[in-house]
């Protein structure tokens, strides 16, 4: 495993880390025993950073992390998120009373005294501009409840605003072969500001595994079913904002990236990590096998300049005009 510095913090995190939305809920059926095996396998392989949120399974993902990291709290870094258990448009959700409640509840579930990275969970730009939430986070940091704080964003505009806030040490963004806009300006500016970049949904909700067909279906409680067209939250969180069938069609045109790189998933994440401004990718998983497959990314050779140009042209000519939702 290789490690990268998270912005201007003291944290050195594994370049392949893991998100826990899948094991918490929202991606169809999951099994706790399989999830814990996956977590332990990741840690044994050198993964030292995991991302979660208080709404993943109503806190269940945080509880699973507490079990898996027991006795390793000083060696395994945990990032969690808050605000989506309330009304994200209501200023009271970001009051000191509310944020303290969210923070203390997460600490209790995680069985920790301090959260390594506490992130606002995709708030509206108006909330970021109001600014009161950052004052609360500074208080929590001073008190030792959190080590650092950051923002999970939906759009480049939100990201650019956030990196201008003193104290923001990390941005979590959607970035993958089907959603390349953040690389145009956000990443370099974040790097200059000393802000780390965590890449979520690196596989575009599974499209970039190359395993789906137009007849693939998803469970009723899987966001790839109930949010396929943005019915519940930002459509960009599902299939990178692409209509499913179009995404499947486009993924077929990218099968060549797997040549010499094991499979499409590993190649897709290698492409992300080829960008030096990125701290880590945080793919999801449900079991040990998926963890092992994702870990193979670290051994994949980088893309050549010619291959990168081919990918860029593909995105510009065939992908970007089909992306829905603000980004």
Automatic annotation (TrEMBL):
**Lineage top rank: taxon:** Bacteria
Q: Which InterPro entries match?
A: AKR (IPR020471), AKR2_Oxidoreductase (IPR053135), NAD(P)_OxRdtase_dom_sf (IPR036812), NADP_OxRdtase_dom (IPR023210)
Record Gene3D superfamilies = NADP-dependent oxidoreductase domain
Pfam families given in the database record: Aldo_ket_red (PF00248)
Q: Which residues form a coiled coil?
A: none
Boundaries of every NADP-dependent oxidoreductase domain copy: 16-315
PANTHER family, A to Z:
D-THREO-ALDOSE 1-DEHYDROGENASE (PTHR43312), NADP-DEPENDENT OXIDOREDUCTASE DOMAIN-CONTAINING PROTEIN (PTHR43312:SF1)
In Swiss-Prot or TrEMBL terms, this protein is called Aldo/keto reductase
Q: Which organism is it from?
A: Paenibacillus germinis
């Amino acid at each position: 495993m290789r490690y990268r510095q998270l912005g201007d913090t003291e944290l050195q995190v594994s370049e392949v880390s893991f998100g826990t939305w899948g094991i918490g809920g929202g991606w169809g059926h999951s099994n706790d025993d399989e999830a814990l095996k996956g977590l332990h396998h990741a840690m044994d392989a050198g993964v030292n950073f995991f991302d979660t949120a208080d709404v993943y399974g109503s806190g269940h993902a945080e509880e699973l992390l507490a079990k898996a990291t027991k006795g390793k709290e000083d060696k395994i870094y945990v990032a969690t998120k808050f605000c989506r258990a309330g009304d994200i448009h209501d200023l009271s959700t970001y009051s000191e009373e509310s944020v303290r409640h969210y923070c203390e509840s997460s600490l209790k579930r995680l069985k920790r005294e301090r959260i390594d990275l506490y992130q606002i969970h995709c708030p509206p730009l108006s909330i970021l501009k109001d600014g009161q939430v950052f004052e609360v986070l500074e208080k929590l940091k001073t008190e030792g409840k959190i080590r650092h704080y950051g923002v999970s964003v939906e759009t480049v505009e939100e990201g650019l605003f956030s990196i201008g806030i003193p104290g923001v040490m990390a941005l979590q963004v959607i970035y993958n072969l089907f959603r390349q806009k953040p690389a145009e300006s956000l990443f370099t500016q974040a790097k200059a500001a000393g802000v780390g970049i965590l890449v979520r949904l690196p596989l575009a909700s599974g499209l970039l595994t190359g395993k789906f067909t137009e007849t693939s279906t998803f469970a009723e409680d899987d966001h790839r079913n109930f949010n396929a067209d943005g019915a519940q939250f930002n459509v960009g969180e599902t299939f990178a904002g692409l209509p499913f069938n179009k995404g499947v069609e486009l993924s077929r045109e990218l099968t060549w990236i797997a040549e010499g790189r094991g499979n499409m998933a590993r190649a897709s994440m290698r492409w992300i990590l080829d960008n030096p401004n990125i701290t880590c990718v945080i793919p999801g998983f449900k079991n040990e096998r998926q963890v092992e497959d994702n870990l193979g990314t670290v051994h994949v050779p980088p893309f050549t300049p010619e291959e990168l140009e081919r990918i860029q042209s593909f995105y510009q000519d065939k992908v970007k005009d089909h992306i829905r939702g603000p980004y």
